[in-house]
């Protein structure tokens, strides 16, 4: 006689393997167009999940995309009337996305801090150069700014 708990555990492991979640490091993979459609669906202000999605688009997915993909998703969303409306109504998430993804708003900012020189890819929002929605470079440490 077999223990049903072992069978259930084996079934769960099989399901995890089929779903690609057996390994904790795995992640869901979607193609560019699925991501673009998801971004369009999240333009309208609604739930907290929407806000988390936009934050991930800006903080995480931006760095996983190629320059060409960034340009394409920026162009794609700028053709959407809801996105345009979000810009006009000053929807914070849409404004941050626009600043982060606009190819004409990308800069390489050189800094000198505690004797160490570094370069950071940034976007401009207001009069500051930002590396993320929560981090900007203090002006006193900037030595040079180049438009990318």
Q: Care to give the gist of this entry?
A:
With 148 residues, the protein is an alpha+beta fold. 49% of the residues lie in helices and 22% in strands.
Count of DSSP-assigned helices: 6
What is the chain-wise order of helices and strands? HHHHHHEEEEE
Please give the largest β-sheet: 5 strands, antiparallel
Number of domains: 2
Assign a percent range to the helix content.
40-55%
Q: Could you give the order of strands across the largest sheet?
A: 4-3-2-1-5
* C-alpha termini separation: 68 Å
- Helix/strand/pairing class, anyone? alpha+beta
**Shape type:** elongated
Which regions are unreliable across 5 or more consecutive residues at pLDDT < 50?
A: 1-23
Overall mean confidence score, pLDDT: 81
Structure summary, number of beta strands:
5
Radius of gyration: 21 Å
What is the beta-strand fraction?
15-25%
Overview of the structural elements:
- With 148 residues, the chain is of the alpha+beta class.
- The protein has 2 domains: 29-101; 106-147.
- The chain has 6 helices and 5 strands, in the order H-H-H-H-H-H-E-E-E-E-E.
- The chain has helices at residues 4-19, 32-41, 48-64, 67-78, 81-88, 92-101; strands at 106-113, 116-125, 128-132, 135-137, 142-147.
